[in-house]
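User: I need a structural model of isochorismate synthase from Spelaeicoccus albus for a docking pre-check later this week. Nothing fancy, just the predicted structure tokens so I can convert them on my end. Input:
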Amino acid sequence: MLTMTKQHLHARSYFIDGVGSAVSPFDSELPTDLTDFLTRLPASGLSAWVRGHSGLVGWGELSRFETKGADRFADASDFWKQLSAGADVDDAVRLPGSGPVAFGSFGFSDRTDIPSVLIVPRVVLGRHSGRVWVTTMSFDDEPAPERLGAPSPLERPRAVTVTAGGRDDWEETVGKVVDRIRAGEAKKVVMARDAAARSDEPLDVRFLLGHLNAHYPTCWTYHVDGMLGATPELLVSSHDGAVHSRVLAGTFYNNSGDHDVDVEAARHVLAKSKDSAEHKYAVDSLVETLSPLCSSLEVDCEPFLLELPNVIHLASDARGHLTHRSDGSRVSSLEIAAALHPTAAVGGTPRGRALELIDELEATDRGRYAGPVGWIGASGDGEWGLALRGGRLDEDGRGVRLFAGGGIVGESVPEYEWLETVAKLAPMLAALGVRTER
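Assistant: Understood. Predicted structure tokens for isochorismate synthase:
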């Protein structure tokens, strides 16, 4: 049930990059590199959505909203609208992500017991188009924090052990899914598995995020309430009526060490019917849902190869302009994410039957894995990705439950699907200092 808030939000955004005169939360000057920046962030309470050198990092928790079930998106949207609608805002920046911001992470399924969450931080550091700013947020009669504490060194993970689910059992389950698809029950079903990583010491989230951002700069590195990773898939980005989405489906995971050889092999393999059909289902599901919300929508005529350090994907970008409602407003980024989720890239086709098969056959509760993760601003603009290539921190901070999945179609081979999940676990395992095993 949605709890109505009577607290009055104050938000102030101002540049700290030297172009204008303002006090920096980093004592007297900005960090000079990624490591310097990370050491000067608090070791806990971080929220992040960063791609390359741009994005948002928040710390301190001003407000939190948790919700579950089929109404989780609507409840969170209502909470944020109520909190931000009457906010006292002083925004001298006026760039995407300035002004009041909330970070969010949502459950994949209506049935998960793990809460979806929106977090309003006390301080947000933003960077966009080369400009750097700070947003401070507070309630009435509260001072707005602007300073960080003393730097603390990053701690590499030590003595991490990994326990993976049974390969034979998972491949047997994938085989059952293939049989059900061939029997005509669905066209595509995305199946996921998990693994548990455990350290003797608490894990330093700052180190993990820094490693992911440095090694996967074209992905969106995220952390919200213990859910962290580096996703290559952008569910929706909306700014001033312009909307963008990136769909991935189809994966090439061999790595010969020769870039040109791998790209040519990927081009050949991903053109085959299995991967091209899987990708088409994902694109079609996006277009079917997004088109009614847009006055115009353009999708790449042909998918392109998205090259990551460990895999190559088939990818398609969609760009459009949102329509106005009768009252002149536009649908918010969170409402769009709710409408799109789950896409065929993480659920399957047709959506309803695929989700039923996942509930019946998948051995793990995904929680917030493969659910929307990102941020929303007071106007409703924001960016939401799919929480992929990552995991969920244990409550004691010493372990991570890792997830990976793949799209299963009638031509899928269980052995190859297992190897695909191994490749998709690699980013987080590398950040944890664990050598990937096949």
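Before docking, keep this in mind: The first strand starts at residue 9 and ends at 15.
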